Amino acid sequence: MLLGFKTELNPNNRQRTLFLKHAGVARHAFNQGLQYTQLILDVNNLAKQVGSDTHIKFPSAIDLHKW
Description:
Helix content is 66%, strand content 0%.
């Protein structure tokens, strides 16, 4: 049997502001990682079209966290 629990948050104004800041920073970090991987894809596709053997590896999640 699967059970689920729902919890309602009732944050005050300061906590609500901190939640929104956290979500904004997480969105910014995700978008930067996405932009970085799209750039790697573009470079690899361009290298393939030119006929070059160079290939850039995708960063791991740990690499992205460090960056």
